[in-house]
Amino acid sequence: MIPRHPSGFSFIFLGVIIAGFESLEELEYLISIHIPGLFIPSWMGEDPRVFRIIRESNYGGIVCTDNEGGYASWVVKGYPSPSDVGRMLDDADNYAKVYQIYRQMARRLRNLGINMNLAPVVDLYHPDNHVIGGKGRAYSGNPDRVIVAAELFRRAHSMEGVEVVFKHFAGQGRSVGDPHRKKSIYPYGWEEFNEDLRPFSYFISSGARYIMASHVSIPLIDGEFPASLSRKILGELLRGRLGFRGKVITDDIRMSAVEEEFGFEDAVRLSLEAGADYILISREITLVERALRLVQNL
User: Fold this and answer.
1) In this predicted model, what pLDDT tens digit does every residue of 157-209 receive, in sequence order?
2) Residue numbers annotated as active site
3) Domain 11-296 is classified in which CATH homologous superfamily?
């Protein structure tokens, strides 16, 4: 049985964790300790009791999920994938249609109590990448097309009061290796990298409030740490060169690309020291508690 109120937790220190859960009991526990963010994972996204519990608790924090359309749609389904949307935008007459599709998606999320969508993906398509391109999660290999599609996504969600999170900084579309399972590396040079940065740069300059940091290693900039743990990437590049003033959310810190190489506690610590504002932990309540204790002692 999970205790309702673990001893030793001071709520003032809970402002950096967004936590997923594997049962309704865990959800109720996270709400009871005033966790600042709840992540609705795929394995809980179709249970209506989840949203009833959140609504009846008057929970006031972040309630987020992945709902990109297509493959990565953990809560509301039946919407075209980013790759399908990219093809739709070959015809300018479809711009209004895409906007309405995304507005309906956002409205359904908001009606369930979700106030943040961990999307859109603004990574560029590359045929050799199986995590993004291979699953239909990229709009296009053309940065301008990506910008148009993601702008429609942002405007539609904004009209429904749902925050968006641009991902996966600093570009996962060309990376080699799946960070869920192993180290993922960006093997290209500055010409390609600057092209991958274009969508992020556009949205930062137009007021992006949230960006998700990937676990991709970019030896071009940092030969030691992946983006999510790198001061050079989150600090010097994202905050410095690109001028981002919003909040950085890590991709799931439980992915093998960081957890196995650096260990869980060090990955959390390094992310925060690099400049992350929120650590996403998709599952395992004991790890959430370990992260909370670590943050208390930083």
Assistant:
1) 999 999 999 999 999 999 987 767 668 899 999 999 999 999 999 999 999 99
2) 180, 251
3) Glycoside hydrolase, family 3, N-terminal domain (3.20.20.300)
